[in-house]
Design a protein that fits this description.
The protein has about 210 residues and is mainly β. It is built from 2 helices and 20 strands.
Length: about 210
Amino acid sequence: MSGFHEVSLPLPLAVGAAGGPQHVVDVVRLASGGESRNVRWSGSRRRWDVGGAAIGSDDAHALVAFFEARRGRMHGFRLRDPVDWKSCAPGDAVHETDQSLGAGDGVTAAFQLMKRYASGGVSVDRVVRKPVAGSVVVAIDGVATAAFSVDVTTGVVTFDAAPTDGSVLTAGFAFDVPVRFDMDRLEMALVGRSAVRVLRVPVVEIAE
């Protein structure tokens, strides 16, 4: 992922972020009174606004430094989704059987981390490219293994030896979302001697 800095927005600045996944669907009203719907994107894209809260002047200074170092919209960074940041539900512990990693064929050693969302018999898979270092656990046929490495910049898990043909591969992990600022300037207002209100700081998921 070009133009990306492997740093996270400081947690005090991310607290209170409002947003979530977005789909773009064209809805056309037909002459019959019915409607036709067409999905433009193959998957969702997440957006948040981390502004609106009053923060201390030191935190505001840290935000300015973070924004300057990213050069506004130029460079991406990591953001922790407040409600969707693990291979399992937020209240559960990460387990090596949380998500499917694929099936062994005796040849392939590298597999991409994915997270599946299922509801009402329908499922959608999401590529996870920014796992948290040290959080990834893996199992082969339900048995945990340490014979792998993971690239935390791409989310690719590479086994020391290609898993045997037909083996079931699973993984658990925590992850961040690759995002960028979606504005060219910060808007802040002094609301007290040492308090600053961040008026608006929109961020958007970087799609590939």
